Amino acid sequence: MAAVYSTRYKHLVVADLGVAFVDGGPVEIDDPRTLELIARIDGIEIHDAPDVPAPTREPAPALAADEAQADTDAAAATSVPEGTPSDEWTVAALVAYADEAGIGLGQSRKKADVLAAIAAAEQ
């Protein structure tokens, strides 16, 4: 059994693991897998832990690249309707249209922002 403290987030709730800190802890955890996962959170201290692996973190750019790839995959899987882009099109269809037309959207993912970017690029 390990006493786990949250020094950074005093009222942290990790619902997926069934762990909730009140005023930073302690929370008693005896499941090795839960300890391994909770140790990955910044600001967690584990006392009397039995061989908990060191926290591992993926670099942020890798996550951003994965999200960008997911957006690209979603756009590629969406067919572009016939006609001129309008409010009646889905965001996915507008993004696919912009991708096919080579229109950069930046971080735009709201329908109004995507439509505005397309309209500006086509003038």
Textual characterization of the structure:
The protein is α+β, with helices and mostly antiparallel strands. The chain has 2 domains: 2-47; 60-121, no CATH class. The chain is 38% helix and 13% strand. The strands form 2 sheets. Strands 4-1-5 form a 3-stranded antiparallel β-sheet. Strand 2 and strand 3 (19-20) form a beta hairpin. Helix 2 packs across helix 3 (91-101). The longest helix has 18 residues, at 60-77. The termini are far apart. The relative contact order is 0.11. The mean pLDDT is 77. Residues 60-77 have a biased composition (Low complexity). Residues 48-85 are annotated as: Disordered.
In short:
The chain has 123 residues and is α+β, with helices and mostly antiparallel strands.
Jot down its keywords.
5 strands, 123 residues, 3-stranded antiparallel beta sheet, 38% helix, alpha+beta
Question: Any chance you could write out the topology, listing elements then pairs?
Answer:
Elements: E1 2-6, E2 13-14, E3 19-20, E4 27-29, H1 32-38, E5 44-47, H2 60-77, H3 91-101, H4 111-121
Antiparallel strand pairs: 1-4, 1-5, 2-3
Helix pairs in contact: 2-3, 3-4
Oligomer: single chain
How would you spell out the order of helices and strands?
Answer: EEEEHEHHH
C-alpha geometry: rod-shaped
Low-confidence stretches: none
Radius of gyration: 23 Å
Report the β-strand fraction as a percent range. 5-15%
**Helical residue percent band:** 25-40%
Number of helical elements: 4
Mean of all residue-level pLDDT scores:
77
The span between the termini is 66 Å
Structural class: alpha+beta
Main sheet overview: 3 strands, antiparallel
Q: Quick one: how many beta strands?
A: 5
Give the number of domains. 2
Strand order of the largest sheet: 4-1-5
Biased composition (Low complexity): 60-77
Region (Disordered): 48-85
